[in-house]
Design the sequence.
């Protein structure tokens, strides 16, 4: 079977505080985009994974897709195998959820291949132990995501937004970014700001979107990697309606009023940035359902 593992972006990312378990309490607007990894899952005697087009990917035992498969097998109490072929298109360490998307797609695919009949909630619980973005990637589409990632509330989105995505520098450690965050520097009225971003997205109000979209991690990541701020400025100078960092970085993205404007910006920016993609949002819930 073939599965597509979609990247995600953060339209809004609020850090509300640090929890007793060491994780941070988050409140986010997340959406899948058309940029995706390609996965083929076949029956096999043992569990194995083969990765193409990837640099800086962990070895097999540390690969998140492999770990997800192994966790599912352990949870189900089975010893079945599978051959997983992963073609990477989503950049590593970018804040686009590539590893989580792969893990979610593998959980969904193997759930069917192994005839386990787990629902999305059960798969999300298994995935959460491996990565905070996995529950959203299992649900897919557009959602408000809270707590450390397990609280996924689907939202409607009937608009398509055209994007240019850039990874201007090597990836960042999420732990280092959160560890450098000073919560006292975060803006107030976070709930109001997030709801304004949601309203802007659902109504197509670019002016409101540019004013309200917020990523509490952006300033920290830009201090660690100055290229992030430079790339955001380059996007803003390319007729973009708004530009912001996704997740903890290092990828940034911009939204354009239509495909033609996005294409024109992409054609110019890809001459300057090697890691540059033309993409668009997925308007409706399109989880990685196996074909």
Sequence:
């Amino acid at each position: 079977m073939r599965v597509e593992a979609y990247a995600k972006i953060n339209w809004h990312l609020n850090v509300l505080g640090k929890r007793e378990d060491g994780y941070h309490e988050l409140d986010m607007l997340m959406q899948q985009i058309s940029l995706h990894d390609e996965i083929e899952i076949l029956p096999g005697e043992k569990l194995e994974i083969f990765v193409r087009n990837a640099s800086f990917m962990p070895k097999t035992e540390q690969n998140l897709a492999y770990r997800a498969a192994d966790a599912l097998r352990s949870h189900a109490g089975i010893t079945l195998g599978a051959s997983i072929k992963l073609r990477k298109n989503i950049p590593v360490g970018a804040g686009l959820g590539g590893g989580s998307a792969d893990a979610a797609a593998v959980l969904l695919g193997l759930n069917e291949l192994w005839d386990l009949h787990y629902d999305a909630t059960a798969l999300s619980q298994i995935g959460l132990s491996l990565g905070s973005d996995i529950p959203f990637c299992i649900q897919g589409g557009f959602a408000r995501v809270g707590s450390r990632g397990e609280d996924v509330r689907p939202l409607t989105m009937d608009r398509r937004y055209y994007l240019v995505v850039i990874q201007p520098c090597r990836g960042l450690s999420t732990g280092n970014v959160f560890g450098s965050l000073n919560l006292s520097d975060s803006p107030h009225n976070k709930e109001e700001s997030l709801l304004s971003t949601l309203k802007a997205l659902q109504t197509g109000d670019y002016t409101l979107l540019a004013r309200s979209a917020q990523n509490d991690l952006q300033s920290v990541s830009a201090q660690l990697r100055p290229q992030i701020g430079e790339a955001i400025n380059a996007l803003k100078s390319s007729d973009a309606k708004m530009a912001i960092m996704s997740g903890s970085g290092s990828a940034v993205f911009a939204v354009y009023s239509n495909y033609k404007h996005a294409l024109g910006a992409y054609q110019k920016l890809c001459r300057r940035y090697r890691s540059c993609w033309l993409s668009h949002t997925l308007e409706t819930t399109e989880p990685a359902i196996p074909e």
About this structure: Residues 285-291 have pLDDT under 50 and may be disordered. The radius of gyration is 18 Å. The CA atoms of residues 47 and 118 lie 20 Å apart.
